[in-house]
Amino acid sequence: MSALGHQKLSTGPLQSVSPSPALTARATQDLRDPAQIVSRNGLLRTRIVVERKKVRLAGRDLWALTYNGMYMPPTLRLRPGDRMEISFENKLDHQTNLHVHGMHVSPVGHADNIFLKVEPGKTFTYEYTFPKSLEPGTYWYHPHPHTLSAPQTAGGMSGLIVVDGLDRYLPAPLRGITEHAVALKDFQLVGDQIKTSHLKIGAPTTRTVNGQLNPRIRIRPGETQLWRLANIGANIFYKVTLPGTKFHIVAQDGYPVNRVYSVDSMVIPAGARYDVLVQGPKAGVSELRTLPYNSGKAGNQFPEATLATVQSGGEPMRPAALPTAFAPVDDLSKEPVAARKTVIFTENKAGTLFYINHKQFDHNRIDFRAKLHTVQEWTIKNDSDEVHSFHIHTNDFQVLSINGKPQVNYGLRDTVDVPPRGNMVVRIRFLDYPGKTVLHCHILNHEDEGMMAVLQIDK
């Protein structure tokens, strides 16, 4: 294994062509939750093969970049304190690697080391030892080779990780309720290929749930279900709503909240996750939708679209009482601060090159340093006219304020939007794991074009 070099994804002649209009469909199939690979006796051991294959998707046979031959690969399911071993085989014609997004685990060696590359035809064994303090919730896995993160993820390479344990914070009547993955993946289509180069964020894109086009989600009137909403695509935003029904948020970015809060809609940038309780509306049909969203005058306007059809039917249930107080959370606002840093997101006028503190990513340069077991306060400034999503590996952060407005601390986060010409103040505690890691914008086109920096965590 060696450090990543600059490399572009090899593409066919169709890749420079503008994508076809987004595909739509009536709801004819029930939602299928992904297959699961579950840890046993403290160990999750599995094999992931990366290859370009034709998959059945949205009623068509399409070329995609796959994990184990699937556009929606298995969910990896484990518990705090478990170990995970993944035999990772690369059958692509270009390098790749693996990142376990949001997980508190070592960033070096054979663990969550995004500086490794797995060359074509090679197999590498990833080995992770998760702490018993790992928070229960929803995470995901995707490739992270610099300059190739966006095309590989957009091509189909992403799946879910679930850490069990949320149940212990739920009242007894809500333990063991029906749960659904609602994995939001989108693809741009050219001919019979999912587009992997010349990606334009605002181009037409087909939005799927668990790799299905407008699946039907069944729920009984009054029934409470747990939905794991996760944006596991490369670039685009979702503003998710289910008209007439509230989302009751119990975890965000794989971190259980201290107080359950309810919203009518949620903006979910690429990489973010929300675990929510949903109670079945009165009998009938409604649509889980993404609403129009504008990411700024230098950004993109995303249209409204149907994600899934919710079919409420069957014997009504008395709606369960929902919890209010939930899990204990860290509060870093009163912690002593060892250092203060400023992170500035900028881009060139053409919107083709992106910078952190006016520098493009260089894996050989240390941009920020932190000392293990200390807390730092960072001010993230967005000196551009579009939203950027701040994401950091290894440790989560607490948002103190956005544009000077204090933020309620429901719990730590790992992917949060910084408004155009705005700022966000966060605090980060560097726990458990020294080593070299990264922070970046999680709009992967922006990361690949330079908006990433190296953080060295020293003992």
From TrEMBL:
Matching InterPro entries: Cu-oxidase-like_N, Cu-oxidase_2nd, Cu-oxidase_C, Cu-oxidase_fam, Cu_oxidase_Cu_BS, Cupredoxin
Pfam families attached to this UniProt entry: Cu-oxidase (PF00394), Cu-oxidase_2 (PF07731), Cu-oxidase_3 (PF07732)
Polar residues: bias regions: 8-21
Coiled-coil stretches: none
All copies of domain Plastocyanin-like, residue ranges: 51-164, 202-280, 349-458
Database matches in SUPFAM superfamilies: Cupredoxins
Location of the region described as Disordered in the Swiss-Prot/TrEMBL record: 1-28
Keyword Oxidoreductase (UniProt): yes
Keywords: Metal-binding, Oxidoreductase
Membrane-spanning residues: none
Protein name: Multicopper oxidase family protein
Source organism per UniProt: Streptomyces mirabilis
